[in-house]
Amino acid sequence: MKAVCLLSGGLDSSTCLGVATSDGYECYALSFDYGQRHRSEIDAASRVAQHFHVREHRIANIDLRAFGGSALTDDIDVPKHRSSAEMEHGIPATYVPARNTIFLAYALAWAEVLECSDIFIGVNAIDYSGYPDCRPEYIAAFERMANLATKAGVVGRTHTRIHAPLAQLNKAGIVRLGAKVGVDFSATRSCYDPDREGLPCGHCDSCLLRRKGFQEAGIPDPLRYPD
Q: Which one of 16, 46, 163, 203 has the fewest beta carbons within 10 angstroms of its own beta carbon?
């Protein structure tokens, strides 16, 4: 069975790829260079793809800086030092408008070319920083749309399934699952505002959630942080 797996190089997407691999799928990894300030994740995605011996890894170049509107694609400060309570309310400045919709649309197009029915995405609805395109109802809605919008779906050649195996896991659960499916955590990157060498800042939402996840899972995080 073939599967297209969205791969950013972060903890979640890397674990998702590990799940797809352990479930016996022949994986085609898809990453994006979309003008993000944390471009070190592209190198991380390449390392993770090699680690799991994917059938093919493609990097699509799109420039979401054309629209901006996010701390990741515009001249907006990345939030730092936020408490868990602050992260649980509202949609943060790191939300990239329609990002998962764009990424899933690319994955859907490649899956149709590959005559593949399965797409994996590493979203989760517990520790997800308030992003609306990480919710289960969004994934279900996209899956319905995918089967209406493609030739493969209309003629019945494939029936697209969007897999979100991390949907109901918190970060500690994702770390434990990642360890179980053989993720090389040292290859991953999760920071929204890394330094020039790609090392994590340690204080953005993504770093704080990652660090909390490893601590609660009782597994050492191999990444080096400034503090």
A: 46
Residue spans of alpha helices (H) in 37-98: 40-51, 84-87
Asked whether residue 88 carries a pLDDT value surpassing 80, the answer given is: no
Distance CA 141, CA 62 (A): 24
Tell me the C-alpha distance between 173 and 182, whole Å: 14
Q: With a cut of 80, say whether residue 222 has pLDDT above it.
A: yes
Per-residue pLDDT band for 86 (boundaries 50, 70, 90) equals confident
Q: Which residues pair with 61 in a beta bridge?
A: 33
Question: How far apart are the C-alpha atoms of 26 and 36, rounded to whole Å?
Answer: 28
User: Which CATH topology does 2-217 take?
Assistant: Rossmann fold (3.40.50)
Out of 58-67, 86-95, 132-141, 205-214, least confident range:
86-95
Instruction: Give the integer Cα–Cα distance in Å for 188 and 166.
Output: 17
H or E element, residue 69: none
Structural domain boundaries of the chain?
2-217
CB 213 within 8 A of CB 175: yes
Contact between 181 and 5 (Cβ < 8 Å): no
Share of the chain above pLDDT 70, in %: 99
- pLDDT tens digits, residue range 170-209? 999 999 999 999 999 999 999 999 988 888 999 999 999 9
Per the CB < 8 A criterion, the answer to whether 186 and 143 are in contact is no
Cβ neighbours, 10 Å, residue 168:
11
